[in-house]
Here is the input.
Amino acid sequence: MKLHSYWRSSAAFRARIAANLKGLSLPQVAHHLARGEQRAPEYLALNPQGLVPALETDAGVIGQSIAIIEYLDETFPAPPLLPREPLARAQVRSMALGIACDIHPLGNLRVLNYLRGELRQPEEAVGRWIRHWIEAGFAALENAVRRHSADGRHCHGSEVTLADICLVPQMYNARRFNCDLAAVPTLVAIDAALREQPAFAAAAPERQPDAGS
Here is the structure.
């Protein structure tokens, strides 16, 4: 298997964390998003969405980070990334999708570039846009996590789940864009605890082969 990635992509960051948790050492193929390499014809032939990450396997290619993570979880069951009990599984998915579907897309590079280019928004307005949506999404997530975290070190229960895998990359984005995190102390504490774990630390953007490119 190979992971098509970019060091600063938070979606690719999620996939790297999941692979590390499963004990998988996946070769990475970097696609520089700021240079538009994800739109190269050879990559579009592989992944028509032209996004990262994409997981290339002998049987086929999987796009979208959540689909990749669930594929890895089903193919390599230990450690599990979703609880066994149906309600708990749904709660974890709700947290993860709140990040992956509601927060992250509004700060995606192609969205920000559209604001800058087509809509001619100044950089100050673009910054306000992304901070607004991250902070609003985190406010809701903070309340959910307070209800479901058993130890203050994980989003749900006391084991790493899909929700934690999505949280850490989005917290990276929040710090990168200077979001105000004073109102989400639970998320801040969980993020700090998770980043101490080897699987999360090794997946960090600055530790990737293409970092800084």
Notes: Residues 123-148 form the longest helix (26 residues). The first strand starts at residue 2 and ends at 5. The domain at 86-199 is CATH 1.20.1050.10 (Glutathione S-transferase Yfyf (Class Pi); Chain A, domain 2).
